[in-house]
Amino acid sequence: MLKKIEEYEIEPYLKLLGEVEHERLDLTDLRHEAWLRRRIHLNYARGAHYIALHDDDNPEAFGIVSVLHEPAPPGIEAWGARAEILQIGVNRSCRRAGIGSRLLAAAERFARDRGVYCLFLMTYGEDYDVIAFYGKNGYIPVASIPDVFGPGTEGNLVLRKVVSS
Ligand SMILES: CC(C)(COP(=O)(O)OP(=O)(O)OC[C@H]1O[C@@H](n2cnc3c(N)ncnc32)[C@H](O)[C@@H]1OP(=O)(O)O)[C@@H](O)C(=O)NCCC(=O)NCCS
What we know:
alpha+beta; Aminopeptidase; seven-stranded mixed sheet; 4 helices
């Protein structure tokens, strides 16, 4: 079952969203928890939509994706042509079972319904498994920002998919 998640409903997904952000984010550290809550709050404030997927027969099988589409001001339609996947995560015990791909498909439907042409995202350039996941779902690497986290780090890879029909 797919469900739009409002900010007040985010609690069950907090741990997973922490893992999505960084493997060293530790929610027992109150400063890390506050950082994550603030990030999620700012995503909602910008207009992000959070969509969760749950398997009705297995409470362990769930995931969540957030996608940001900012409607264009009247007369500047091109600004509405883009949308960004901000976060995606699947509960660890249920990965490689298609949940992540179904979440991406839901984000794509959401974007397409709003007239989006191009859905894009950024991921860490060294997350080869994640890049493989996006590649399997039709997301093409189009750019890299090598030093976005400072010298000696892998930086971000930008991937995109044309979703207009
Ligand atoms: C990335 C993530 C969302 C994928 O979700 P998922 O439900 O496991 O993905 P799917 O089952 O739909 O995978 C589809 C395909 O993606 C690729 N893929 C997914 N996980 C992979 C892995 N660990 N290694 C290699 N390929 C992988 C495979 O091609 C897979 O198809 P296959 O299983 O038939 O080989 C999930 O692994 C996750 O939550 N990771 C931690 C959070 C994270 O890194 N989020 C992204 C931050 S940008």
